[in-house]
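COMPLEX REQUEST
Ligand: 2-acetamido-2-deoxy-beta-D-glucopyranose
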Amino acid sequence: MMPFYLNLHPNVILLASIALGIIIYRSIRRSWTRRQFAKAHGCKPIARSLSKDPFLGLDLLPGTFRAIRENRILVRSLEFFKTHGNTFTVRELHVSAIVTIEPENIKTVLSLKFQDFCIAHRLKCMKPLLGEGIFDTDGDHWAASRALIRPSFNRDQVADLRSLESIFQDFFSLLPRDGETVVDLKDLFFRYTIDSATEFLFGQSVGTLKKSEAELGFADAFHYAQKAILMRGMLGPLEYFFPDRRAEECNCICRDFVQQFVDEAVNAVETRKAEGEKADPSSTRPKRIFSHELAAQTSDKTRILDELMNVLLAGRDTTASLLTNMFFMLAKNPAIWDKLRREVAFLEGRLPTYEELCNMKYVHCCMNESLRLHPVVPRNDRQAVRDTVLPLGGGKDGLSPIFVPKGTLVLYNLYAMHRRKDIYGPDADEFRPERWEDGKLMPRWGFLPFNGGPRICIGQRYALTEAGYVLVRMVQEFRSLVSRDPNEWEETRGLTVTSHNGAKVSLIPA
Ligand code: HEM
Ligand SMILES: *[C@@H]1O[C@H](CO)[C@@H](O)[C@H](O)[C@H]1NC(C)=O
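STATUS: Structure written out below.
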């Protein structure tokens, strides 16, 4: 039998050879220009790779699966930086990445060379729930989202303390006060933040703290839909083999639920416009509602819906996780609680004003310290959209620049960076709010709980007000917080990192 290619017309063979020639020529030229580019920037190769198998990184997988099962992904990553330095490469299945905990590299990715990186890989798993908005798009779409949302966060005081107090009262009414009963604050914090986020975004709280567990329709659907995002992210292209009906259902429940508020906001804005001319300018200004502010700027209902979903996702679990992690640590450190009590004592039991809350130094030290030791977004990544360079990680000493080819993922690990002893000192692994006290600790890009650069968290001030408020009110109401969990803090994986065992405490009233 003749080999099949001898049957082909000579022109076909000629064309195929030319095509092959072009491909080979291009790839040689690309690797040549890349080498020139890398040389021109003084790049040196990254000395260490985590994976011994350079193709699929299969040698790492068993350890990864074990670490996931044992909730030790973050703890395990600390080991890697100890053995491989601050910047190394890694390969796991289809992903090839550079991992770094150098503040200068992270600053370059997020700020100096912002245009060289994207989050396009995020959209695919988030879009079914979020649509396209500020949190999951790049480029012009993202810039338009940011411009749309920005004004609502730009004022001095974003969070309204009166609504926070009313939600705090719902929260407070569910706390046991006998000093004996054990309560896990985690579940209550997650309800507190969804109640306050929906109040802020839609002008109307979903009121989960007022309901029994059984009636949490929207909140439950949202919870499941978020877990599904993580699953889709892990499965990657395999997603098609594991369709998740429940996730599709939950996405619909969430989007339909929020759609009502979009309709309501667009109607309200239209009515207000129609009545605008005859409105009395001296009448009191209505409460600010995020969805109405969006509707005042665009009548595109899908856009409003998508942005609301994006901000809800970005803002809810993050703050609840901060509170859970922080209360876990506070319960283990009675001396810190006592010191907080001394800080709020001047209020003599009345509610703090916004300025007073902002000025409570030690409250802010505690929040920073929690975000340092247990950053709720502990790892993050960006993908290079063109060939580019990072300043550190090359050569044996890791002090030369490194070349980052287009398509490479750059992973940065805040959990490990926040524990660098050369930045935070020998007690970097300890929870010690005092390290922030004298204002001398200024890690800048070495402390990044809210990210940095053009995509810095837009809700930072809102989050710190929301979390600080609960902390101050709890400190006012309770003489002490007793830990009912003998274990150390342990991570749990979600989109954010929360104490695996929640925050089990009992409370002794003041
Ligand atoms: C302790 C609480 C919070 C933490 C630790 C936190 C952290 C972060 C981080 C790390 C990012 C960057 C994500 C990335 O680009 O990869 C981010 C973005 C964002 N956050 Fe927060 N966040 C918190 C609370 C909030 C709240 C309460 C809101 C809104 C009410 C909010 C709204 C956003 C939005 C809209 C973005 C996307 C910004 C953009 O891409 O332009 N966050 N946040
Ligand atoms: C907490 O960290 C932020 C960001 O680095 C800093 O600006 C702020 O001053 C810190 N707060 C305290 C009380 O040290």
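REMARKS: Residues 46-274+286-509 form a domain with the Cytochrome p450 fold (CATH 1.10.630.10). The chain has one domain: 46-274+286-509.
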